[in-house]
Amino acid sequence: MTDSVDSSEKRKKNVLKIIEQKGLCSVMNTTKWKELKKVVSELPFQPPFVIKEVDEEETSHHTFDRDERHEGDWGLYLENYLGGDLFATPYFAIEWVKVRPRILKTQGRLIADKVVDETEAFIKGLNQYGIPYEEQDGTVIIYGYKGN
Predict the structure, then answer these.
(1) What is the DSSP string of 82-111?
(2) DSSP code of 43?
(3) In this structure, which long-range contacts are made by residues 82-89, counting pairs with CB atoms below 8 Å and at least 24 apart in sequence?
(4) Are 144 and 95 in contact (CB under 8 A)?
(5) What pTM, to 2 d.p., does this model score?
(6) What tens digit of pLDDT does each residue of 48-79 get?
């Protein structure tokens, strides 16, 4: 247990150093992250998403600009990932989360996929809890930290 606590403290110091070096400002807090999890849990499906941590480089994996056929794996993230356990990304390390509250549902081989769009309900939930966000081409970005 001591090793994991030491490792967590070491990571926190590293993340805080990167935040300072990049000149980032905190946008979210623990309460807001928990409210985001509540907004997601109230949708009829769990939207696809991608998380970028402060101490990781942005890659093509972080590009999130098209509709997906799969739901997001928020089950793990709602309970454990976002600040929940020792192996989780703690809230303090999240630079941003990109969410696409839309999924494609297959209707058959000859019929175009149906777009199931919960963007309006998702944004309504974000607004209800005062969670700041930006929207870019159908992707909602929730920043943990943002540059000036």
Answers:
(1) BTTSTTSB-GGGEEEEEE--EEEE---SSS
(2) S
(3) 82/33, 82/36, 82/37, 83/30, 83/33, 83/34, 86/4, 86/8, 89/51, 89/53
(4) yes
(5) 0.80
(6) 888 898 988 877 767 767 776 566 666 555 45
